[in-house]
């Protein structure tokens, strides 16, 4: 029998002094009881324990041992990663192989089922041997005493000084340990004590508890341990680091295995023949390293790290896990939670495949893609052509091929990317909400002089003068359907002027667009009414924000806060009340249906009123095989970025091609078709196997009369108000944001 975790090493003077002092204290007791019958000794032990179960520290009655937390994909089976300070997971005794239970008793405490928590006879033998010296020091601690010591030295509710005192080589500490062990033995069954012990013992190589040890050494759950494997693990607890066959001495580990097998024969747990057969088995290790954190996700899936990091950031905002960020972080790393995330492995695999198909891992440009479930806000996939890794990059490459920056969700140093004409959705929604109809008509010119003062190239007589990218195809009389389908800049700038730019900005914010860049946030707060170019997508956003905004329309006006989990279960099996969809209505359902009807035009489908006559992403219809779908393309100034957002009633997906480190590196118009194709194929994977669901047509009141008279543009007098929309290029504004 040995003290858990003690090393087989020469005794220090302090250790010798401790044993001599303790021997003196207990000598009279030992001499008095040595000749007593066993049953009388047990009774004396129990009666002499100077303590009660009620007086025990709370951690001994209800252990607060740290355990690792598991993150799974939405199937509840695919492991993403784990978080831990201590690699431990508790399992019930019924899930531990019987031979493992027998092996630990034989190795550490043969009289476990006979004594009352503190084995005075065993302690006396150990004390005599230690005082005489001349060999390996013996501890005399029972399994119950070892359990007490390990709980107290790892209890996260105790101070560092209190935890350190649990292993002090003092007579007082040893007597307290005996008292606590006796009190536990009177109140808990032997199986309960054995279960607790097996779940806290250290087995070396970073594995605490039998579940972690079984996985660490043999890659299997403890219920499947063989006799030879059980004997090996039981032998480790005397000196876990020295005997570990992974990091220590394999010969010593095998020698300890033989000792345990012989002890099992002595306790009649196994036969001599069974012991001999187990001794003959080779050391068959299957060591597995438990991943720890987002940079240690499952092999071959480092793309999952971006989603993992997003989940961790979400976790740190949840009061259910602690009052402070530090407490929530500690809860994740030691609370033993089982987290079923919203990540869909199939959708994620397709998104990652498509992102890397457009740009390889070594390309400085990137295609971050996000997928969101309408009606719940659950994030289904987050992909980008980067490795989520802290590994060094080649010189001059800040974020490729390795990065841990949130390129998909934004935050930290990532403001986002310009999404171009995808922001026209917010103008259309604001117009519909103000009472205008889908048939609102305007004779869109090639260039539109606006009321916003501007100088330099691109201005018209001192006014900001946006132009259509393809005049031959875009100019002329347009309504919302074909204005959106053909992405007519002058139509939507005109429409935004009629509605009010501040209403458009507010609409975007209602649908979850977050202004992370300081200049964008200031413009939105202080000068939204004059942000004329907002409808053309000059504000920075992220694929996740954009996908969720369009998901709000897909859900007929119900906005749901993005959430990365399906369920969170505590170590005790209790469901934590977090992660449920947090949704609210931000749009009238008919307004959302009307916007969706116009959004059928860009993707090559037809509106409920037959008003689509061309689109910028008509290939989407073929990829979705005619399944109801809607969406919008976006090209920022000088094609610095290319964007596509698509949605069905079941999923919304957004992808933005950009250079996260250099906005001067325009991705070019040629990549637009690849972005469209990539996003559409992610949508196809997401809806595969799901019943086809049609969009609900808007009311005729919101459709309006397509024969409505044309409204001709007028050139207003130049405003003298110096607080006007910023006429600089998108590139210059991006550079200014960064000083």
UniProtKB/TrEMBL annotation:
GO terms for biological process: cell wall organization; peptidoglycan biosynthetic process; proteolysis; regulation of cell shape. It catalyses: [GlcNAc-(1->4)-Mur2Ac(oyl-L-Ala-gamma-D-Glu-L-Lys-D-Ala-D-Ala)](n)-di-trans,octa-cis-undecaprenyl diphosphate + beta-D-GlcNAc-(1->4)-Mur2Ac(oyl-L-Ala-gamma-D-Glu-L-Lys-D-Ala-D-Ala)-di-trans,octa-cis-undecaprenyl diphosphate = [GlcNAc-(1->4)-Mur2Ac(oyl-L-Ala-gamma-D-Glu-L-Lys-D-Ala-D-Ala)](n+1)-di-trans,octa-cis-undecaprenyl diphosphate + di-trans,octa-cis-undecaprenyl diphosphate + H(+); Preferential cleavage: (Ac)2-L-Lys-D-Ala-|-D-Ala. Also transpeptidation of peptidyl-alanyl moieties that are N-acyl substituents of D-alanine. Keywords: Carboxypeptidase, Cell shape, Cell wall biogenesis/degradation, Glycosyltransferase, Hydrolase, Multifunctional enzyme, Peptidoglycan synthesis, Protease, Transferase. GO terms for molecular function: penicillin binding; peptidoglycan glycosyltransferase activity; serine-type D-Ala-D-Ala carboxypeptidase activity. InterPro entries: Beta-lactam/transpept-like, Glyco_trans_51, Glycosyltr_51/Transpeptidase, Lysozyme-like_dom_sf, PBP_transglycosylase, PCN-bd_Tpept. Pfam families: Transgly (PF00912), Transpeptidase (PF00905). Residues 79-264 form the Glycosyl transferase family domain. Residues 697-739 are annotated as: Disordered. In the N-terminal section; belongs to the glycosyltransferase 51 family. This is Penicillin-binding protein 2D.
């Amino acid at each position: 029998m040995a003290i858990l975790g003690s090393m087989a090493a020469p005794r220090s003077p302090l250790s010798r002094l401790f044993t001599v002092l303790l021997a003196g204290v207990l000598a009279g007791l030992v001499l008095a009881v040595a000749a007593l019958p066993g049953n009388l000794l047990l009774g004396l032990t129990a009666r002499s324990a100077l303590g009660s179960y009620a007086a025990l520290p709370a951690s001994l009655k209800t252990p607060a041992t740290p355990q690792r937390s598991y993150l799974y994909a939405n199937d509840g089976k695919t492991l993403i990663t784990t978080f831990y300070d201590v690699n431990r997971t508790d399992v019930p005794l019924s899930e531990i192989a019987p031979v493992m239970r027998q092996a630990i008793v034989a190795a550490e405490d043969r009289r476990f089922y006979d004594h009352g928590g503190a084995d005075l006879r065993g302690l006396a033998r150990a004390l005599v041997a230690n005082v005489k010296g001349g060999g390996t020091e013996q501890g005399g601690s029972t399994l119950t005493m070892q359990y007490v010591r390990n709980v107290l030295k790892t209890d996260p509710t105790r101070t560092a000084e209190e935890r350190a005192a649990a292993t002090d080589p003092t007579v007082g500490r040893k007597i307290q340990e005996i008292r606590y062990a006796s009190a536990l033995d009177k109140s808990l069954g032997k199986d309960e004590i054995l279960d607790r012990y097996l779940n806290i013992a250290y087995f070396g190589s970073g594995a605490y508890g039998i579940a972690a040890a079984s996985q660490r050494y043999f890659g299997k759950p403890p219920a499947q341990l063989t006799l030879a494997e059980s004997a090996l693990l039981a032998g480790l607890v005397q000196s876990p680091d020295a005997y570990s066959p992974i990091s220590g001495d394999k010969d010593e580990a095998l020698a300890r295995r033989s000792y345990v097998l012989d002890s099992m024969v002595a306790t009649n747990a196994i036969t001599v023949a069974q012991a001999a057969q187990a001794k003959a088995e080779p050391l068959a290790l299957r060591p597995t390293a438990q991943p720890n954190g987002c940079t240690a996700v499952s092999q071959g899936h480092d793309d999952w790290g971006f989603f993992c990091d997003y989940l961790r950031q979400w976790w740190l905002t949840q009061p259910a896990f602690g009052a402070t960020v530090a407490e929530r972080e500690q809860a994740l790393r030691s609370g033993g939670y089982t987290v079923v995330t919203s990540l869909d492995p199939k959708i994620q695999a397709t998104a990652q495949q498509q992102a890397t198909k457009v740009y390889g891992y070594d390309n400085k440009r990137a295609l971050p893609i996000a997928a969101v479930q309408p009606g719940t806000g659950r994030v289904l996939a987050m992909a980008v052509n980067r490795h989520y890794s802290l590994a060094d990059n080649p010189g001059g490459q800040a974020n490729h091929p390795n990065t841990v920056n949130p390129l998909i969700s934004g935050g930290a140093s990532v403001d986002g990317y310009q999404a171009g004409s995808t922001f026209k959705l917010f103008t259309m929604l604001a117009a519909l909400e103000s009472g205008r109809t889908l048939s609102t008509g305007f004779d869109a010119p090639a260039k539109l002089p606006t009321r916003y003062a501007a100088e330099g190239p691109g201005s018209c007589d001192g006014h900001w003068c946006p132009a259509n990218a393809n005049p031959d195809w875009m100019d002329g009389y347009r309504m919302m359907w074909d204005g959106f389908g053909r992405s007519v800049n002058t139509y939507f700038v005109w429409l935004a002027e009629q509605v009010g730019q501040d209403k458009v900005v507010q609409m975007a914010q209602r649908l979850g667009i977050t202004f992370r860049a300081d200049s964008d946030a200031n413009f939105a707060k202080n000068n939204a009414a004059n942000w004329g170019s907002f409808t053309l997508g000059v504000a920075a956003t992220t694929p996740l924000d954009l996908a969720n905004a369009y998901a709000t329309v897909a859900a007929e006006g119900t906005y749901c806060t993005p959430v990365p989990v399906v369920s969170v279960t505590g170590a005790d099996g209790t469901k934590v009340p977090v992660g449920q969809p947090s949704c609210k209505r931000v749009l009238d359902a008919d307004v959302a249906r009307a916007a969706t009807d116009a959004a059928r035009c860009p993707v090559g489908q037809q509106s409920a009123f037959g008003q689509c006559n061309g689109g910028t992403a008509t290939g989407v219809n073929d990829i979705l095989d005619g399944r109801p779908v809607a969406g919008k393309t976006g090209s920022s100034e000088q094609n610095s970025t290319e964007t596509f957002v698509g949605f069905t009633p079941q999923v919304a997906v957004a992808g933005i091609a950009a250079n996260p480190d250099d906005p001067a590196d325009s991705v070019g118009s040629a990549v637009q078709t690849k972005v469209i194709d990539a996003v559409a194929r992610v949508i196809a994977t997401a809806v595969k196997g799901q019943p086809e669901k049609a969009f609900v047509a808007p009311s005729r009141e919101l459709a309006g009369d397509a024969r409505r008279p044309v409204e001709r543009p007028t050139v207003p007098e130049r405003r003298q108000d110096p607080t006007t929309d910023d006429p600089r290029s998108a590139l210059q504004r991006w550079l200014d944001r960064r000083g």
